[in-house]
Amino acid sequence: MLGDYTITGRGAAEIAADVERAIGEGALQPGATLPPLRELATELSVNPNTVAAAYRLLRDRGVIETAGRRGSRVRPRPATSARDEISIEVPPGVRNLATGNPDLALLPRLADALAAAAARHAQRPMLYGGSAVDEELGRLAREAFDADRVPDGPIGVTSGSLDAIERALTAHLRPGDAVAVEDPGWGSVFDILTALGMRPVPVGVDDDGPLPGDVERALAQGARALVVTDRGQNPTGAVISAARAAELRTVLAGHPDVLVIDDDHVHGLVELPLRPLAGSTRHWMLVRSTAKAYGPDLRLSVLTGDPVTVDRVRGRHRLGPGWVSHLLQDAVVHLWRTGAVDADAVAASYAERRDGLLRALAERGVPAHGRSGMNVWVPVPDETGAVTRLLQSGWAVAPGARFRLASPPGVRVTVSPLDAGELPALADAIADAVRPYRAGRFG
Hints:
By secondary structure, the chain is an alpha/beta fold. The chain is built from 15 helices and 15 strands. Helices cover about 40% and strands about 15% of the residues.
């Protein structure tokens, strides 16, 4: 079970810390089975309740999982191991389409925005005791939410979408709770759930968003929250359509106590309208990040939701960071006021490359998906083989394992670094890498 490693410790915290340390040092490998409670208690000369408490700590931290009679074992991917580690080494000269980064040429220059923020700071510096949300930022954010028919609610600010999602989950759920998530979906959400000791329940996705039947099953099985991407879904590019939103709202009406989190991380660079699920249940949150439209290093998201959820998120934020820098908030206000990003032009630029690649693949008989955003999802029979063959052809793509729980294999291609002239060669390489596989569904 443990090979040559021997667990040590007298108290529950000591035993749990020893197991975590062994995993971090590589002495305990993913999948290793831990001794039964009474057996380990006898070896350590402690009460079985002490070992049970240690194992409970490890489960809550996402380090181990319990598989009934098969006992407890180290998770295949412990919480300390992010999905970003499922990556490939990109050799020199290979075009890197695996990062998920936006096109640098479409990002605004921040010098004027930061200078304006610094000037405003000189006149009205943010000090302890001030409002966590800049008044103008809150006003502009609320106007944008209203324009997209997001239900009324207070405004909050966090350091990115994932920060907001984590805080909303911990505001309502506990370790061990189940959360319905898109599959394929954003790997970082899977990581957060693991780290929080929560259990992801996969929900299938097609081009119109989460499948209502899968959502119903997940909620009927006890999922206490649902996390959805409204448009530009990572990695598939799915967009929740009006019809799908209506179906999902009908499902959610039967589960009014479920927390619903809408992620609109591509606001400002997509051409399709927002169809949020916000307000379908008692507790909800919709979050928008500045990362994709204004740059990943501009760590700021605005959110709204029901008063209880937003108050809890803001309260926990006050206990930690306190607030997101008003220098950043003022910079975002400047960018919004001055129209630093032409949303229509940015959306058209990504659409030209994304749709061009989809057409080129279709001409070669390769099904793929990408209705919005900057990614294209290509089903493949074998991820390792496809990624390897594409590398040999001079292209690096992201393995689908970063984004999957139970859905079939695939690879993600980020189109932001591409020029239109490169699309035929890339499509040829992808077609060669996936033949003779054919598929029409990715969830």
